[in-house]
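INFO batch 0412 | record 1 of 1 | parsing
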Amino acid sequence: MGVPQSRTEMILARGLRKEFTVRVKAGRLRRHKQVRAAVDGLDLRVDRGETVGYIGPNGAGKSTTLKMLTGVLTPSAGEVRVCGLRPVAQRTRLALRIGVVFGQRSQLWWDLPLRDSFDLLRHVYRVPAAEHAARLRR
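INFO prediction complete | emitting C-alpha coordinates
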Protein backbone atom coordinates (compact mmCIF):
# COMPACT_ATOMS: atom_id res chain seq x y z
CA MET A 1 0.00 0.00 0.00
CA GLY A 2 1.37 3.42 -0.90
CA VAL A 3 0.33 5.35 2.22
CA PRO A 4 3.47 6.55 4.00
CA GLN A 5 3.05 6.83 7.74
CA SER A 6 5.17 8.81 10.14
CA ARG A 7 5.63 7.89 13.78
CA THR A 8 3.01 10.46 14.81
CA GLU A 9 0.18 9.31 12.53
CA MET A 10 -2.17 6.84 14.17
CA ILE A 11 -4.77 6.94 11.40
CA LEU A 12 -4.07 7.91 7.82
CA ALA A 13 -6.64 7.50 5.06
CA ARG A 14 -6.51 8.85 1.52
CA GLY A 15 -9.34 8.69 -0.97
CA LEU A 16 -11.20 6.13 1.15
CA ARG A 17 -14.35 4.89 -0.59
CA LYS A 18 -16.88 2.14 0.08
CA GLU A 19 -19.58 1.23 -2.40
CA PHE A 20 -22.51 -1.09 -1.88
CA THR A 21 -24.78 -2.61 -4.51
CA VAL A 22 -28.45 -2.26 -3.58
CA ARG A 23 -31.60 -3.45 -5.27
CA VAL A 24 -34.05 -0.65 -6.04
CA LYS A 25 -37.71 -1.06 -7.01
CA ALA A 26 -38.36 -0.50 -10.69
CA GLY A 27 -42.09 -1.21 -10.74
CA ARG A 28 -44.35 -3.66 -8.91
CA LEU A 29 -42.28 -6.79 -9.52
CA ARG A 30 -39.03 -5.56 -10.98
CA ARG A 31 -35.91 -4.37 -9.24
CA HIS A 32 -32.61 -3.17 -10.60
CA LYS A 33 -29.19 -2.96 -9.06
CA GLN A 34 -27.70 0.37 -8.16
CA VAL A 35 -24.26 1.18 -6.77
CA ARG A 36 -24.24 3.64 -3.86
CA ALA A 37 -21.24 5.14 -2.13
CA ALA A 38 -21.49 5.04 1.66
CA VAL A 39 -18.10 6.76 1.96
CA ASP A 40 -16.79 8.79 -0.96
CA GLY A 41 -13.19 9.99 -1.11
CA LEU A 42 -12.46 10.43 2.60
CA ASP A 43 -9.08 11.87 3.57
CA LEU A 44 -8.34 11.62 7.29
CA ARG A 45 -5.30 11.99 9.49
CA VAL A 46 -5.26 11.52 13.24
CA ASP A 47 -1.95 11.97 15.02
CA ARG A 48 -0.78 10.30 18.21
CA GLY A 49 -2.39 11.96 21.26
CA GLU A 50 -5.24 13.62 19.33
CA THR A 51 -8.86 13.13 20.34
CA VAL A 52 -11.35 13.20 17.49
CA GLY A 53 -15.14 13.26 17.32
CA TYR A 54 -16.66 11.77 14.17
CA ILE A 55 -20.22 13.01 13.85
CA GLY A 56 -22.88 13.21 11.19
CA PRO A 57 -26.49 12.32 10.44
CA ASN A 58 -27.77 8.76 10.03
CA GLY A 59 -26.54 7.32 6.76
CA ALA A 60 -23.53 9.65 6.52
CA GLY A 61 -21.03 6.74 6.53
CA LYS A 62 -19.67 6.96 10.08
CA SER A 63 -20.02 3.26 10.92
CA THR A 64 -18.84 2.24 7.45
CA THR A 65 -15.72 4.36 7.93
CA LEU A 66 -15.00 2.83 11.33
CA LYS A 67 -15.51 -0.66 9.92
CA MET A 68 -12.94 0.08 7.20
CA LEU A 69 -10.53 1.52 9.77
CA THR A 70 -10.81 -1.67 11.86
CA GLY A 71 -10.62 -4.11 8.94
CA VAL A 72 -14.21 -5.33 9.20
CA LEU A 73 -14.95 -3.97 5.71
CA THR A 74 -12.62 -3.79 2.72
CA PRO A 75 -12.57 -0.34 1.07
CA SER A 76 -13.71 -0.17 -2.56
CA ALA A 77 -10.94 2.35 -3.19
CA GLY A 78 -8.32 4.38 -1.39
CA GLU A 79 -5.59 3.62 1.07
CA VAL A 80 -5.64 3.34 4.85
CA ARG A 81 -3.27 2.63 7.74
CA VAL A 82 -4.12 2.46 11.43
CA CYS A 83 -1.30 2.20 13.98
CA GLY A 84 0.99 1.60 11.02
CA LEU A 85 -1.01 -1.48 9.97
CA ARG A 86 -3.19 -2.27 6.96
CA PRO A 87 -6.59 -2.93 8.63
CA VAL A 88 -7.90 -5.72 6.39
CA ALA A 89 -4.62 -7.54 5.81
CA GLN A 90 -3.46 -7.19 9.42
CA ARG A 91 -6.81 -7.24 11.20
CA THR A 92 -5.75 -9.65 13.96
CA ARG A 93 -2.69 -7.59 14.88
CA LEU A 94 -4.75 -4.39 14.76
CA ALA A 95 -7.46 -5.89 16.99
CA LEU A 96 -4.83 -6.34 19.70
CA ARG A 97 -4.23 -2.56 19.65
CA ILE A 98 -7.71 -1.03 19.28
CA GLY A 99 -11.33 -1.76 20.10
CA VAL A 100 -14.66 -0.59 18.71
CA VAL A 101 -18.24 -1.09 19.91
CA PHE A 102 -20.99 -1.19 17.26
CA GLY A 103 -24.71 -1.20 17.88
CA GLN A 104 -24.53 -2.00 21.57
CA ARG A 105 -26.88 0.70 22.79
CA SER A 106 -28.53 -1.77 25.14
CA GLN A 107 -25.14 -2.50 26.71
CA LEU A 108 -24.24 1.13 27.45
CA TRP A 109 -26.22 3.72 29.39
CA TRP A 110 -26.30 7.28 28.02
CA ASP A 111 -26.53 8.86 31.47
CA LEU A 112 -23.55 7.00 32.96
CA PRO A 113 -19.87 7.49 32.29
CA LEU A 114 -18.48 4.71 30.09
CA ARG A 115 -16.38 3.35 32.96
CA ASP A 116 -19.53 2.94 35.11
CA SER A 117 -21.32 1.11 32.28
CA PHE A 118 -18.37 -1.28 32.06
CA ASP A 119 -18.49 -1.79 35.83
CA LEU A 120 -22.17 -2.72 35.70
CA LEU A 121 -21.47 -5.20 32.90
CA ARG A 122 -18.61 -6.65 34.94
CA HIS A 123 -21.19 -7.69 37.53
CA VAL A 124 -23.66 -8.98 34.93
CA TYR A 125 -21.01 -11.23 33.36
CA ARG A 126 -19.35 -12.07 36.70
CA VAL A 127 -15.89 -10.83 35.70
CA PRO A 128 -13.58 -10.83 38.74
CA ALA A 129 -12.62 -7.33 39.95
CA ALA A 130 -8.87 -7.86 39.43
CA GLU A 131 -9.37 -9.07 35.85
CA HIS A 132 -11.74 -6.16 35.12
CA ALA A 133 -9.24 -3.63 36.52
CA ALA A 134 -6.43 -5.14 34.43
CA ARG A 135 -8.56 -4.88 31.27
CA LEU A 136 -9.36 -1.24 31.98
CA ARG A 137 -5.70 -0.42 32.52
CA ARG A 138 -4.76 -2.20 29.30
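INFO post-check: The first helix runs from residue 62 to 69.
INFO record closed
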